[in-house]
Amino acid sequence: MFKQIWFPEMIQQHIMSRLDKEPLNSYYYATNYPDVYAAAERTFGSWGGAIEACGLDYSLIKKYKSWTKQSVLDEIRRLAKEGEPLFSQHAQNHHKPLYMAAIKRFGNWGKAIQAAGVDYKSVRLRRSMTTAEIKREVLALFRSGESLSYMHMRNNYLYLQAVAMKKLGDGSWARARRECGILTNYRLQREKSETIRG
Protein backbone atom coordinates (compact mmCIF):
# COMPACT_ATOMS: atom_id res chain seq x y z
CA MET A 1 0.00 0.00 0.00
CA PHE A 2 1.31 3.46 -0.91
CA LYS A 3 2.09 5.90 1.86
CA GLN A 4 -0.24 8.89 1.86
CA ILE A 5 1.37 12.16 0.78
CA TRP A 6 -0.29 15.12 2.49
CA PHE A 7 -0.27 18.42 0.61
CA PRO A 8 -1.13 21.64 2.51
CA GLU A 9 -4.62 21.91 1.02
CA MET A 10 -5.32 18.25 1.87
CA ILE A 11 -4.38 18.84 5.50
CA GLN A 12 -6.60 21.91 5.65
CA GLN A 13 -9.47 20.03 4.03
CA HIS A 14 -9.10 17.21 6.56
CA ILE A 15 -9.25 19.68 9.44
CA MET A 16 -12.19 21.66 8.07
CA SER A 17 -14.19 18.50 7.34
CA ARG A 18 -14.09 17.73 11.07
CA LEU A 19 -14.91 21.23 12.30
CA ASP A 20 -17.82 21.07 14.78
CA LYS A 21 -17.79 17.26 14.52
CA GLU A 22 -14.61 16.30 16.37
CA PRO A 23 -12.10 18.07 18.62
CA LEU A 24 -9.36 19.82 16.67
CA ASN A 25 -6.80 20.15 19.46
CA SER A 26 -3.33 18.69 19.04
CA TYR A 27 -3.79 15.86 21.56
CA TYR A 28 -6.91 14.54 19.84
CA TYR A 29 -5.42 14.77 16.36
CA ALA A 30 -2.09 13.25 17.36
CA THR A 31 -4.00 10.35 18.92
CA ASN A 32 -6.64 9.78 16.25
CA TYR A 33 -5.00 11.03 13.05
CA PRO A 34 -1.24 10.73 13.68
CA ASP A 35 -0.34 10.82 9.98
CA VAL A 36 -2.26 14.06 9.42
CA TYR A 37 -0.86 15.55 12.62
CA ALA A 38 2.74 14.71 11.66
CA ALA A 39 2.24 16.10 8.15
CA ALA A 40 0.75 19.30 9.57
CA GLU A 41 3.74 19.77 11.87
CA ARG A 42 6.13 19.29 8.95
CA THR A 43 4.18 21.48 6.55
CA PHE A 44 3.03 24.33 8.79
CA GLY A 45 5.72 24.23 11.48
CA SER A 46 3.28 23.36 14.25
CA TRP A 47 -0.25 22.09 14.78
CA GLY A 48 -1.29 25.59 15.75
CA GLY A 49 0.10 26.83 12.45
CA ALA A 50 -2.07 24.35 10.57
CA ILE A 51 -5.16 25.45 12.48
CA GLU A 52 -4.40 29.14 11.84
CA ALA A 53 -3.86 28.36 8.13
CA CYS A 54 -7.48 27.19 8.08
CA GLY A 55 -8.56 30.62 9.32
CA LEU A 56 -9.41 29.29 12.80
CA ASP A 57 -8.48 30.77 16.17
CA TYR A 58 -6.12 28.26 17.78
CA SER A 59 -6.56 29.81 21.22
CA LEU A 60 -10.16 28.56 21.09
CA ILE A 61 -9.25 25.17 19.62
CA LYS A 62 -6.69 24.35 22.31
CA LYS A 63 -8.98 25.32 25.17
CA TYR A 64 -8.49 21.94 26.85
CA LYS A 65 -4.94 23.07 27.62
CA SER A 66 -6.26 25.93 29.74
CA TRP A 67 -7.96 23.49 32.12
CA THR A 68 -6.21 23.38 35.49
CA LYS A 69 -6.63 20.57 37.98
CA GLN A 70 -8.91 22.81 40.00
CA SER A 71 -11.12 23.79 37.07
CA VAL A 72 -11.49 20.12 36.10
CA LEU A 73 -12.58 19.27 39.65
CA ASP A 74 -14.94 22.24 39.82
CA GLU A 75 -16.64 21.23 36.58
CA ILE A 76 -17.02 17.60 37.64
CA ARG A 77 -18.55 18.72 40.95
CA ARG A 78 -20.92 21.05 39.09
CA LEU A 79 -22.06 18.24 36.81
CA ALA A 80 -22.50 15.90 39.78
CA LYS A 81 -24.58 18.52 41.60
CA GLU A 82 -26.82 18.90 38.55
CA GLY A 83 -27.32 15.16 38.34
CA GLU A 84 -25.40 14.74 35.08
CA PRO A 85 -24.25 11.15 34.38
CA LEU A 86 -20.53 10.90 35.06
CA PHE A 87 -19.60 7.53 33.64
CA SER A 88 -16.72 7.57 31.21
CA GLN A 89 -18.60 6.98 27.96
CA HIS A 90 -21.09 9.77 28.65
CA ALA A 91 -18.25 12.16 29.46
CA GLN A 92 -16.48 11.28 26.20
CA ASN A 93 -19.65 11.81 24.19
CA HIS A 94 -20.98 14.96 25.85
CA HIS A 95 -18.07 16.68 27.66
CA LYS A 96 -15.07 15.90 25.47
CA PRO A 97 -12.88 18.92 26.48
CA LEU A 98 -13.44 18.16 30.15
CA TYR A 99 -12.78 14.46 29.61
CA MET A 100 -9.54 15.12 27.71
CA ALA A 101 -8.40 17.62 30.35
CA ALA A 102 -9.13 15.11 33.12
CA ILE A 103 -7.01 12.50 31.34
CA LYS A 104 -4.20 15.03 30.94
CA ARG A 105 -4.31 16.34 34.51
CA PHE A 106 -5.15 13.17 36.45
CA GLY A 107 -4.12 10.26 34.25
CA ASN A 108 -7.60 8.85 33.75
CA TRP A 109 -11.24 9.80 34.17
CA GLY A 110 -11.78 7.64 37.26
CA LYS A 111 -8.98 9.35 39.19
CA ALA A 112 -10.41 12.76 38.32
CA ILE A 113 -13.84 11.68 39.57
CA GLN A 114 -12.37 10.38 42.82
CA ALA A 115 -10.30 13.56 43.28
CA ALA A 116 -13.52 15.58 42.95
CA GLY A 117 -14.88 13.70 45.94
CA VAL A 118 -17.33 11.59 43.94
CA ASP A 119 -17.49 7.83 44.47
CA TYR A 120 -16.56 6.48 41.04
CA LYS A 121 -18.10 3.09 41.77
CA SER A 122 -21.46 4.81 42.01
CA VAL A 123 -21.13 6.34 38.54
CA ARG A 124 -19.75 3.39 36.60
CA LEU A 125 -23.13 2.69 35.05
CA ARG A 126 -21.45 1.32 31.97
CA ARG A 127 -21.06 -2.08 33.61
CA SER A 128 -24.83 -2.44 33.77
CA MET A 129 -25.79 -0.79 30.48
CA THR A 130 -29.00 -2.20 29.06
CA THR A 131 -29.34 -3.05 25.39
CA ALA A 132 -31.52 0.05 24.98
CA GLU A 133 -28.81 2.26 26.53
CA ILE A 134 -26.15 0.68 24.32
CA LYS A 135 -28.22 1.32 21.20
CA ARG A 136 -28.88 4.90 22.31
CA GLU A 137 -25.15 5.59 22.79
CA VAL A 138 -24.16 3.98 19.48
CA LEU A 139 -26.87 5.88 17.59
CA ALA A 140 -25.82 9.14 19.26
CA LEU A 141 -22.30 8.64 17.91
CA PHE A 142 -23.66 7.77 14.46
CA ARG A 143 -25.88 10.87 14.34
CA SER A 144 -23.02 13.11 15.44
CA GLY A 145 -21.02 11.99 12.41
CA GLU A 146 -18.54 9.88 14.38
CA SER A 147 -17.02 6.97 12.48
CA LEU A 148 -18.31 3.62 13.68
CA SER A 149 -15.54 1.63 12.04
CA TYR A 150 -14.04 -1.14 14.14
CA MET A 151 -10.64 0.56 14.56
CA HIS A 152 -12.05 4.00 15.37
CA MET A 153 -14.33 2.54 18.03
CA ARG A 154 -11.53 0.43 19.46
CA ASN A 155 -9.30 3.49 19.74
CA ASN A 156 -11.91 5.90 21.11
CA TYR A 157 -14.92 4.05 22.54
CA LEU A 158 -13.50 0.70 23.52
CA TYR A 159 -15.94 -0.10 26.32
CA LEU A 160 -19.04 0.80 24.32
CA GLN A 161 -17.78 -1.32 21.44
CA ALA A 162 -16.99 -4.27 23.72
CA VAL A 163 -20.32 -4.23 25.54
CA ALA A 164 -22.22 -3.78 22.26
CA MET A 165 -20.38 -6.73 20.71
CA LYS A 166 -21.18 -8.83 23.77
CA LYS A 167 -24.84 -7.90 24.26
CA LEU A 168 -25.95 -7.10 20.71
CA GLY A 169 -23.55 -8.67 18.25
CA ASP A 170 -22.70 -12.10 19.65
CA GLY A 171 -19.02 -11.09 19.45
CA SER A 172 -19.30 -9.14 16.19
CA TRP A 173 -19.13 -5.34 16.00
CA ALA A 174 -20.68 -5.33 12.50
CA ARG A 175 -23.63 -7.36 13.80
CA ALA A 176 -23.96 -5.04 16.81
CA ARG A 177 -24.16 -2.03 14.46
CA ARG A 178 -26.87 -3.76 12.43
CA GLU A 179 -28.81 -4.44 15.63
CA CYS A 180 -28.79 -0.67 16.16
CA GLY A 181 -30.25 -0.18 12.69
CA ILE A 182 -26.98 1.06 11.16
CA LEU A 183 -26.35 -0.62 7.81
CA THR A 184 -23.31 1.39 6.67
CA ASN A 185 -20.48 -0.88 5.48
CA TYR A 186 -17.44 0.77 7.11
CA ARG A 187 -15.09 -1.90 5.77
CA LEU A 188 -16.20 -1.07 2.21
CA GLN A 189 -15.76 2.65 2.92
CA ARG A 190 -12.19 2.05 4.10
CA GLU A 191 -11.37 -0.05 1.06
CA LYS A 192 -12.73 2.67 -1.23
CA SER A 193 -10.71 5.28 0.61
CA GLU A 194 -7.53 3.24 0.28
CA THR A 195 -8.21 2.71 -3.41
CA ILE A 196 -8.60 6.45 -3.95
CA ARG A 197 -5.38 7.16 -2.00
CA GLY A 198 -3.48 4.51 -3.96
Characterise the protein shown here.
- By secondary structure, the chain is an all-alpha fold.
- It has three domains: 8-62, no CATH class; 67-124, no CATH class; 129-197, no CATH class.
- The protein has helices at residues 8-17, 26-32, 34-44, 47-53, 58-61, 69-81, 88-94, 96-106, 109-115, 120-123, 131-143, 150-156, 158-167, 173-179, 186-197.
- Helix 2 (26-32) crosses helix 3 (34-44), helix 12 packs across helix 13 (158-167) and helix 13 (158-167) crosses helix 14 (173-179).
- The chain is flat and about 45 Å long.
- The relative contact order is 0.09.
- The model is unreliable at 191-198 (pLDDT under 50).
Q: How far apart are the first and last residues' alpha carbons, in Å?
A: 7 Å
Strand content: under 5%
Mean pLDDT: 82
Low-confidence stretches: 191-198
**Largest sheet, strands/sense/barrel:** none
